[in-house]
Specification:
This protein is of the alpha+beta class. It has helices spanning 2-6, 78-82, 111-120, 128-142, 146-162, 180-196, 203-209, 214-225, 229-246, 252-258, 264-275, 279-285, and strands spanning 16-23, 36-43, 46-50, 53-57, 62-65, 71-75, 88-95, 124-126, 166-168. Keywords: DNA-binding, Transcription, Transcription regulation.
Length: 288
């Protein structure tokens, strides 16, 4: 975990790095770095954590995360990956805030770029025609070098800065309060929940695992996750239910109980609170 926090994905001699990832798992640790990151999933699915946002991810998703915004992509194929038989693929671009020099962002010409960087501190996900355009542009950048690559990166950022086809991910009130030890502890909690969300999870279990009292753990988690532990578990369960409803075409009742909910009424209530729609409306939006 220390290496994940201290490493820089960009050599000091480079303004940016664009590369393909073909690994058993995307960077598996809850971490953050000073560089900005554009990431496209080429193969894989699972649960994505960005700031206090918890959502499923799938092939084709494109996100832009700002400086020091904690993030984690956790694959659904954890057991297969442990046996080295499942692989995730992605394309990633890292760049420094001052990759065009320390004074450029203060110029009049850079006003949209400054605004974009502020938005990226909450994380951005793109959709529609913008996502289609970005997929092509990101793959083109992978094979470029030198000034040609920098000019193309500017085209990507210009495209992002002008679009309205995006969703901000972390809440408006989110701030990164994590330290190195916190990052390791929060990852430990996330990992435990992802393995056990289908069962009843008692706060006392997590408190013991993190060497805290239940009250201290609840307070600690809310400070660093910007939400209660109960809400966090509900979001994980609803995210899993969404995948069951759409990808596996399960009925509402099956999705409810296979996602860890004990009653259908609570499932429907939590589903609407988190997705802003009922499970049936959600299925109809996907033509099911």
């Amino acid at each position: 975990m220390k290496a994940a926090l201290q490493k820089s994905p960009i050599p000091t001699s480079r303004a940016y790095v664009a590369k393909l990832l073909n690994e058993p798992v995307f960077d598996p640790h809850w971490h953050f770095h000073s560089e900005y990151q554009i990431f496209m999933v080429l193969k894989g699915n699972g649960t994505r954590f960005i700031g206090d946002s918890v959502k499923p991810f799938k092939t084709g998703d494109i996100t832009f995360t700002g400086s020091n915004l904690p993030h984690l992509w956790r694959s659904d194929q954890e057991q297969e990956q442990a046996k080295n038989i499942a692989w995730s693929q992605g394309a990633v671009i890292y760049f420094k805030e001052d990759f065009l020099g320390t004074n450029f962002l203060q110029t009049e010409e850079a006003i949209r770029l400054r605004q974009l960087f502020r938005k990226s501190l909450r994380g951005m996900e793109f959709h529609g025609e913008t996502a289609l355009k970005l997929r092509e542009m990101i793959m083109q950048l992978i094979s470029m070098e030198g000034l040609e690559g920098i000019l193309h990166l500017l085209k990507i950022l210009n495209c992002i800065s002008q679009t309205q086809e995006f969703e901000l991910l972390a809440s408006a009130g989110y701030t990164n309060t994590l330290r190195e030890a916190d990052t390791e502890r929060m990852y430990q909690v996330y990992s435990y929940v992802m393995k056990n969300f289908r069962n009843k999870i008692a706060i006392a279990q997590l408190a013991e695992m993190t060497n805290m009292t239940p009250t201290s753990f609840s307070r600690y988690f809310k400070v660093h996750a910007n939400k209660s532990f109960t809400q966090f578990v509900s979001e994980i369960r609803i995210g899993h239910a969404c995948k069951l409803l759409i990808e596996q075409k399960k009925n509402v009742s099956t999705a409810c109980y296979e996602s860890g909910f004990q009653t259908l009424s609570n499932f429907n209530k939590q589903f609407k609170a988190i997705t802003k729609r009922t499970p049936m409306v959600y299925k109809k939006e996907y033509g099911l």
